[in-house]
Design brief:
single chain, alpha/beta, eight-stranded parallel beta barrel, globular, binds SN-glycerol-3-phosphate, binds magnesium ion
Length: 254
Amino acid sequence: MLSLRQFVPSVQQFVVGHRGSSGTAPENTLASIRKALEAGVDMIELDVQLTADREIVVFHDAVLGRTTQGKGRVQYTTLGEMQSLDAGSWFSEEYQGEVVPSLRQAINLIRGKAYLNIEIKPPQQDEDYHIRLEKILECIFENQMEQFTLFGSFHHGALAHLKRRYPELHTAAINVPNDKRLPSEIADEIGCEGFICSLRELTYKRSEDALRSGIYLGVYTVNTEEDLTFALIRKAKAIATNYPARIQEYLKQQ
Ligand code: G3P
Ligand code: MG
């Protein structure tokens, strides 16, 4: 498998399974990752959080309630408690008993089959997020995933911090809503390789600026054929979707 640094310039587009295949399976679970891999995605985007006992889990929200029957905040919940929760039933009965994976478990499934895109959420209230960053890095390096992982974040300070410590890591700034700066201006501050924005934010102005500056563009969430056409016309390279199988089919027909 090529390193991400070699892979990105070698392709015109690549498909990113957003939270796995979150349109067809419960987001950020092993079932969702499996479905994305079956669809043949190039990369899988996962959100991660730090538990009370300093483990990294694959989970989107800071609170438990939306995707499990648990209550309270992830940061005050242990890994064991997280893994006793049902993270599948909210999506459909078929996925009852699906667990919240640790980042390690997710990596074990993805390694060698697809690239990983870890989204680093902005710092939470009462949190020393540097501990979270350290634990994420520890897990990536321990599992020899550093050449195969894209770190993305709305929190550009976290990416700048990563790049200062490990310039060889691959990073992409996610556009903060209402930030009018161009990709090149943001990349100048961080040293990131990519720039990710929502479909709504994907203007020709941003696209042309990124292309001119050698920054590749990622866009989320591309779920229909119209979305895909919109993204491709604006030269987006990383196509993040909740429906990877569907988008792969559309891409084949292009
Ligand atoms: O990486 C882009 C996207 O995942 C950011 O938003 O809320 O889906 O994690 P969200
Ligand atoms: Mg995300």
